Please model this.
Amino acid sequence: MPPHHTHPSDPRPADTGMRAQIADLVTEAETQLRNGLWELTSGDAALARTAAAGLAEVVRPAAEQDALPVIKRLEHLREALAVLAVTLARTHGPLAWFLARASAALSPVLTWRAVPAAGRRQTFGAALPTPDELHDAEDAVRHLHTTLARTGDQAPGQRPPHGHDPSAPPSGAGG
Model:
């Protein structure tokens, strides 16, 4: 199995950008919530809020992230994966499955490095990310943050409105 194998029903191949993979995952989650296939519990909502807060702490708005050195940006992206892993460890069912798929979409971050190396043999296959790859990963985390914040604010059993734009910021969020 390739390292970034996707589920057979995935609409996009694993080499599609992280932001696009997260957008597809968010659309699927919104559809499941809206159609009553995922009944959000109060525990799910609380964990979603916790994860959203953790993601907001580690990946800041684009202008702030862009001003950081690559090593700090990579550190923040790895911390975002840690937030997802810790949250995933605390739940089961649809939220766990959602977080697992989000983590898988962001997993290429784990193969990136920010420091130079004398030769590929010394890097265990880790590669320097391009600026576009960094932006894509950071945008994916921001989109995931927005979705988890919105999900956390949703009352258990409440369904998102039909036609809801999953990329819109949660109510009261300032852009």
Q: What stands out?
A: The CA atoms of residues 1 and 43 lie 34 Å apart. Residues 131-153 form the longest helix (23 residues). The two ends are 40 Å apart (CA to CA). Confidence is low (pLDDT under 50) at residues 1-8, 164-175.
